[in-house]
Every structure is written in C-alpha cells, then in structure tokens.
Amino acid sequence: MKNIQFSSLGKNTFLFSLLLGSCLLVLFLITRADIVVVCGFYYVMAATVINILILLYELIEFLTDVSERKDSGNSIWLMLLNIPITFLYLFIIFNL
C-alpha cells in the first residue's frame, strides 16, 4: 500500500492548529477560567483566517500542478479536518 503524501505547509499548519487548539481546550478543562475561553475565541478567529489562506494556496497548487504528485490535494483534505474538530471542541465547551 502506498503512503499518503502531504505538503509540508499543509501538514505543519494542520498539526500546529490541532495542537494549539487542543492545548487551549485542555487548559480550559483544567482551570475553567473565562480568560482561556476569550483567548480560545481569538485563537479560533486567527486560525480560521490563516487556515483559509493556506487552504487557498494549497488549492491553487493542486489545480496548477500538472505532475502526478498531488500532495497539495491530500493536504487540503487534512486541513479541512480542522473544521469538525473545531466544532467538536466548541460543543464540549458549550456543554460544560
């Protein structure tokens, strides 16, 4: 079976967003501090803008790449995975 390849920009953006968001969620679950919710809100806003810009870049790379190497397309799917993860984290926070 062939390994799935991702572009380094898309993979690193996904991992950074996931790890920082997870750290904020865990910090909130431990402390229940309102300031963490405020920081998390600003983080989600900033991460949304950054992820959309990088997603558009990866999409352009995918559409203009004529070679058989389509790691940008795989990175698009990986970055789109951040959306349901964000909604899951918001669901957890709103139900506490």
Model description:
This protein has 96 residues and is mainly alpha-helical. The chain is 81% helix and 0% strand. The model has no long low-confidence stretch (mean pLDDT 91).
Quick recap of the structure?
The chain is mainly α and 96 residues long.
What is the CA–CA distance across the termini?
A: 43 Å
Helical fraction equals: over 70%
- The residue ranges in which pLDDT falls below 50 over 5 or more consecutive positions are none
Q: How many E strands?
A: 0
Mean pLDDT: 91
Q: How many helices in DSSP terms?
A: 4
- Helix-strand pattern, N to C? HHHH
The coarse silhouette is elongated
Rg to the nearest angstrom? 16 Å
Write the layout of secondary structure elements.
Elements: H1 8-31, H2 34-64, H3 71-80, H4 82-94
Helix pairs in contact: 1-2, 1-3, 1-4, 2-3
Any key phrases for this structure?
elongated; 96 residues; mainly alpha; 4 helices
